[in-house]
Amino acid sequence: MSVFALYNIKGGVGKTSAAVNFAWLSAQQDKTLLIDLDPQSASSFYFRVRAAKKHSSKKLIKKTKSLDKFIRGTDFPGLDILPADLSYRNLDLELKKSKNSRSRLRRILNNFKEEYTVIIIDCPPNITLVSENIFQAADYLLIPTIPTYLSELTLIKLIDFFTEENISQKKIQPFFSMVEKRKKLHLQKIDELSEKYHFLINHIPYLSDIEKMGEERMPVCSQRPASPAAQAYKNLWEEINKRIKNKDN
Amino acid sequence: MKNPRKNLYYLHGAIQHTELLYTIRQSFILEAEKRKRKQIKIFDSFDQRLFQKNKLLCYEDNTWKLLDLTTFQYEQKSPDKPDKKFYWQFCDKNLCDYLKDILNTRALIEKAIISYTQTIYHIKNSDKKTVARLRHFELEISDLSLPDNIFLLEEVRGYQKSFDKLGLIITDLAINEFSENNKSLFTRLLGMDIEPYSNSFSVNLKPEMSAATAIREIMVFLTNIMRKNEEGISLDIDTEFLHDYRVAIRRVRTILSEMKSLIPNDQYEYFKTFFIKVLKISNVLRDLDVLLLKKDSYRDLLPLAVKDNSNFIFKTISKKRTVELKKVKNFLKSTEYEQYLWEWQDFINRLEGMQINNEPLSRYIDIVARQRIEKKINTLQKKKFKFKKDVSPQVLHELRIETKKLKYMLEAFRFLYPENTAMSIINNLKKIQDRFGLLHDLLVQQNLLDLYFNELDAKGKIAGKEAAAFGALINLLNQQYQSAHRKSINKFHKFIKSGDYARLNHAEMIEERL
Ligand SMILES: Nc1ncnc2c1ncn2[C@@H]1O[C@H](COP(=O)(O)OP(=O)(O)OP(=O)(O)O)[C@@H](O)[C@H]1O
Ligand SMILES: [Mg+2]
Hints:
Chain A is an alpha/beta fold. Helices cover 45% and strands 13% of the residues of chain A. Chain B starts with 5 loop residues before the first strand and ends in an 8-residue tail after the last helix. Residues 509-514 of chain B have low confidence and may be disordered.
C-alpha cells in the first residue's frame, strides 16, 4: 500500500484538483481510496458523495475498525472515497486527546492495507496536529506549488519542519501547479526553484478545463481524457510512479 | 473489510429484459455504456481442481484472470500470452504460485469459449451519483437448456439500500438468482462437468459385508477409474490420466493378491497376468512423462555451456514418447484388451454368486481384512531386525513392497480403524512411498537417457556439445539420486524401526459379532 498526501500549508493551490484526478488515474490500475480530510469536503463534492449522517471525527479516531461503513463507492469501479464532514474541523482536538497522537492516522490507514493498493489524502491547508499525522502517515507528500516567491517560503518552512522533527525529506515531492506560461515571473521562478529543490519535472498548467470540474463534478481525466489538462495530470502521475519504482529498486 | 455484494441472475430469452430496464427507470437514472462484443475462454484441469475451489481461470482481453465464484471478484489479473498449459508457463509470479498449489503437474484444458455482448448500466440516484451497477451479458449459446441472458448486480460501497431495492425489483420480475439450488445450471454454463472425475479411493464398505461383496465393491470402483481414464490417455490431454489409471491397476493387483486365498487360483493367475501386462506396456510412457514434466527444472540446473543443447535431448525424448503413446493407444483400442476387461468385469460380477460354493468368500470382510493387515504388520516387525544401515538391496526391496501393499490395504480398509490412527499411518506410508518413487524415477531416467544416447551414438547421430549435454544431465540425475538415496533410507529405517504401524494391531477391535 502506498499513501500519497496532497499537501500545502497554502490554500487554493490545486490540492483537491490534483487529488481527485490522481485518484481517478490510480484507480485505472489499482484499488484506490481517496480520503477527504478537508472539512470543506471539496473532493467528496467532486464525486457527488455525501458523508453518512453518523460520520464524525470522533468516529474516525476511535472506531477505526468500523470505519469501512463510511466508505463510499464512487462512479468509478476501483475508486472509493472516505468522505469528509464538517465535523473534521474538530479533528485536531480529537487527535490531541488520543494517545500516540502523531502516528494515529498511520495506524488507521493500516487497517486498509488488504483492501487498497493506493491511498490518496486530500489535506486541509494549515500546519497543526492533523498535518503532523499526515507527515507520519504518508509515504509521499505531493506539494502543489504555484511558482511565486511566497510559495518558496512555505516550501522552506515545510522542509525546516521536517528537519526539526527528523522526518525523511525524501517524502517531500513538490510539483508546479497553476502554471501560467505567459507570465514571465512564473517561468523565472520555475527555473530558480527547480535548481534548488527536487521538483517533479511535469507540471500542471493553469487551464479552464480544471476550473470547470466544479460544475461538472467529474475528474477532468475521466470527462475529457484527451484534453491538455488530463494529459498534464496523467504525465505527472506517471512520473510520480516512476520515481517511486526507481527508489524501491 | 467486507466486499461489496454481487448477485448473479439469469434469464432464458430476453423478454423480461426490457421490462427490467423499464422498471429500474421508475426509481433510478440508468446510464448505459456502449455495448461491447467479447469472448471469454475458461480453463481448468481435467478434474476441475480450480472449480472445486470455487475459482475460475479465464482468458479475456489478452489477460489471464482468476475469478472467485463466491464473491465474483477478480483475485488476480495478468496480461500475458494465451497459450498456457502448465502453471510454470505463467509469467505472473503470484498466479504461477497459486496455480502450482492447486494444479501441480496437471495440464490446463479449455473447458469453454463463450462469446457474449456486454452492456454496463450505471444506476444513479437523483444526485446523479452511481449507487449500483448492472452488467448485462447476452450469451451466444446454442444449448437451449442453458440461460442466454445473465445479469450481475453490483453493490457500490455505502449504498446498501439501493442494492437491496434493486434485488427486489429483479426477483419480482421472476428473474432467477443463481444459488446452490441451481448450481448445476451454472456449472454447465461454464463448461464444467457436474460430476468431475475424482481419483480418491472412497469405497463405501461396511464391516458386515461379506468378503465377496466388499471385493466386488472395491474392484468395481477401481475398474471404473481405469475405464474413465482411458479416453484421456488416448487423447493425450494430461499425463495425470495415465498416472491415475496405473495407480488404480496397482491397487487392483495388491488387493487381489492379498485376497488370493479366497479366489479360485486359475482365475487369480489369469487376471494377474493381464494386469501385469497392462502395467508393462505403459511403463516407459509413464517414465517419459515424468521426465518431460521435469524438463524445465532439469534444464535450469544444467551447466550454462550445454543448457541450449539440452533441447536436443528433450526433442529426442518427445519423439520416443510419441512412439510409446502410440503403443499404449493401440493396446487400449485392441480387441485383446476389450476381451480381457470384459472377462474381468464378468468375474467381478460373479463374485457374490461364488460365495455359495466358496466359504471363505462369505466371511465378514472386517475379519478377513484385519487378518491380512495384521499379517503385513507382523512381517514388517519381524523383518525390521534385518534392516541395518548397510541394508542389502534385496531386503530393502522386500520391505518396500510390504509397506506399499500395507498402504494400499489400509487405504481400502481404513474404515476398520479409528480414523486418526489410520490416516496418520497412511500419511507416513505415503511420504515414504513418494521418496522411493522419486528415487526410482531418478534411476529409471538415467537408464533411459543412457539407452537413447547409445542408440544415437551407434548410428553416429550425436557428437560434441549435444553428447556433453546428455552426459551432464545423466550426471545431474545421478547426483540427485545419491543425495536423495541416503536420506530416504534413513527415513525409511526410522519408520520401520519405530514400529508405529503396530498401533493398528492394538487399535480397538470392532465388536464381536456372531
Ligand atoms: N491548474 C488549474 N488551472 C485553473 N484552475 C485551477 C487549477 N487548479 C485548481 N484550479 C481552481 O482553483 C480553485 C482551487 O483549487 P483546489 O480546490 O484544487 O485547491 P486546494 O489547494 O485544494 O484549495 P483549498 O486549500 O481550499 O483546499 C478551484 O476553483 C479550482 O477549480
Ligand atoms: Mg482542497
